Structure formats: structure tokens, C-alpha cells
Amino acid sequence: QLKLLQAMTTSETDLDLSSFGLTHLPEDIGDLEALTFLNMSYNKISQLPESFYKLTNLNNLYLTDNPIEKDNTFLPTLKAKSPKIWAAYICQNIGTQDIEQIETIYYEILSIFPDHTEAFNSLVNQFNNYKKNKKIIALSEAYPDISASDSYYGKMIADTFFEEQQYEKALERYEKIVQENPYSEPYTDCSKAYLKLGRFAEAIQSAEKAVSYDDQYIENYLALIEAHIAHKDFTEALKTIENCRNAIGYDNEFVLLFKTVQIHIALGQVAEAETLYQKILKKRADIEDNWIIKAEVCEILNKENEATKWYKKIIQEGYAHNQKARFRLGYLYLKKQQYPKAECIWIENLQYIDSGLITETYLALMCLEVLQGETLRALAYLQKALQDSDAIKFLVKHEPRLDSIRQDARFLELMAMVTL
């Protein structure tokens, strides 16, 4: 009672009455109209006074472990008398793990209150937990004003667009986050999106901003290194690698060695790349992240048999890089003109592949069909890839693995059949 009186006197917006042993609320609880947060969990409340329904500013309402929650008439009554308070309660007490029911309930709230941020964010979070990327995108486009109002969920939405390879839309959201709350991570995100879109100078600028905000985070340096490599600023890429070592030590030496090998190969310095490769081989072989790097370095050095060995090891062990290993192994088969093997492993991978590789896999299958003279089948795969126009434009223009067929008459014929 003292806490209630104090809240009424000071117009607090937050009130925690949990575990007070309350059996009822005073009738004048409705005078606390400024309340936005009310926690009445772990009491003995079995009914609510009529004035309670005046608390229409509530965004968060908790009644956990009170008898009233077991009353079948509680939710229908709450919804009928105050849809706003019902929504505040539902957002904190969804009461189901069924994603379809969750979706229905939150969309019902949004149909009543189109600006209900809590319902929107909760639904985004649920979709993210269940990896429902398409649903996140549909939700954000249906409620654009809400989707741009919170940097945390705004980044979650932007990351989803990026995963789905809709890079222009991802970049638009990352840039908005940077404008409203500049820090290193969204600058790194912007850099990666610029890179995917072939805007290399802007990728470099964003990554430099990220490093300036946080020079102790490896991802910021890696974004800058990748941007310099894409822009063919190999000297600057090597400087960035050295700056990274000086700033954060040698904890990430393995990945930095890999980037250095890439640069030496790009510069035609095969002997230097071979020396670094030997260093990489001496690193611990029981760490799976090292396996994928070793395989990729073998590919760069044209050690195809060794690369195949590492990719097969990853696939057989069933580790996290399994999908990427299958994807890359398919390209090795393609290079050896083992077309049936390449097609088999790519089609199999599409059954459970990470969304970030779907477009690239369709593009790979397109290449395979072009090389076999199957123009119509190649077109079918390209049409599937074209569902993501941003990614396909970039890949067709910049993907080095297409170099072998870029001037092929059959490939040019295929390109003439579609509008990119």
C-alpha cells in the first residue's frame, strides 16, 4: 500500500509490485495513468478493479503466478475492456511455442495498433529464432515506420536482408543505423554491403570508420582488408594486416595468414604464398575453422587434390562449415569436368543450404548447364537466381569463377535472354 501511495504521489512510469502478497488492487489504481510498466507477478490477485482498465499507457504488464491467469474469462475480458492493456500483457506472456500461433497473435495486435513497437519487435525476434527470413522481410515492408525505429531490431532486419542477398535494402537500413547511432559494427556492415554491390571505394571508407571507432575488433580489420583486396589495393591490404597485428596481437594469426596468401597470389608471388601455406599447415589440425581455411588456401594455390581432401573431411565430419565445403567441392569437380559429381553435390546441398549460398548455388548450376550445352536448363537456374537481383548482378559481373565461361558463346546467348 505504501508503494502504491508513493507511485500515485510521484507519477512513476514503472511500478514493481511482485511478491508483495497482494490479494487485490485498490480501486484507485486507475489513477496511475502514467504507468508504462507494471509487474504484479507472484501475488494472489484473482480479479482486477474496474479502474485498472484506465491504465492505457501500459506497454509491459506482468501477472505471472497469480490465480487470475488461470481464469478462462481473464483474457477475453481484458481484450474486450482494453485492447491496449491486453496487447501489453500478451507481448510479455505469449503462452505458446507454436510459431504459427505466435504469428497470428502478434499480427492481430498490429492490426489493432499498427504502431505497436513491442508486438513488432517480438514478432521479429520470434521469426529470427525460427530462421523465418522471408517473414521478417515481409513484416518489415508491411510496417516500414516501426522497422526503422529501433537500432537493435533494425540491425536484425538489415542482417536478414543481407543474408537473403538483398544488398541494396540491407545497405539502406545499415546506413540509417549509422546516421542515428554511429558505432563500429554498422560501419562494418555497410562496408560488407558496399563490397557485395561492387562499390569498393565506399566499402573502404566505411571499414576505415569502423576501425576508427573500435581498433580492437578483428571483424573491422577483416572488412577493411577485404575491401582493399577487392579494390586491388594490395599494398594497403598488407598494411591493414600489419596494423591489425600491432593493435590486437596474434590471436587471429591464422585468418591473417590466409588473407596474406590471397594477396601474394593476386600479385603473382607464388613462392611467398607457398611459404605462408607451410606455416598454415603447421597450425593445429584439430580445429575445424582451420580446416576450411586450409582447404581455401589449397584452392588458391591450385593444390586441388589437397583442397578436395580437406573439403571431404569437413563434409564427412558434419561440422558447421559442411554446406560451404560442399559448395566449394562442387566447383573443384566442375574444374575437373566431373559434371555429374558437381551437379549431384550442389542439388543435394540445396535441400538444406544456408540462405546466403542459395543464389550462388543456382548460379553454379547455371554455369554447369552452360558448359554442357543445356541452355534451357541453364536459363531455368538463372531465373531462380534472379529472384535476388542485387546478388546476381554482382556475381555475373565480378564472380571470378565465371571467368572460364564469360566469353563462351552459350553463356552470352543466355545473358541475351534475360534482363539483368
Layout of secondary structure:
Elements: H1 2-10, E1 14-16, E2 37-39, E3 60-62, H2 74-81, H3 83-92, H4 99-112, H5 117-129, H6 133-142, H7 144-147, H8 151-163, H9 167-180, H10 184-196, H11 200-213, H12 218-230, H13 234-248, H14 253-266, H15 270-282, H16 288-300, H17 304-317, H18 322-335, H19 339-349, H20 358-371, H21 375-385, H22 389-398, H23 409-416
Parallel strand pairs: 1-2, 2-3
Helix pairs in contact: 2-3, 3-4, 4-5, 5-6, 5-8, 6-8, 8-9, 9-10, 10-11, 10-12, 11-12, 12-13, 13-14, 14-15, 14-16, 16-17, 17-18, 18-19, 19-20, 20-21
Question: How would you describe this protein?
Answer:
The protein is mostly helical. The chain contains 23 helices and three strands. The chain has helices spanning 2-10, 74-81, 83-92, 99-112, 117-129, 133-142, 144-147, 151-163, 167-180, 184-196, 200-213, 218-230, 234-248, 253-266, 270-282, 288-300, 304-317, 322-335, 339-349, 358-371, 375-385, 389-398, 409-416, and strands at residues 14-16, 37-39, 60-62. The chain has a three-stranded parallel β-sheet. The model has no long low-confidence stretch (mean pLDDT 86).
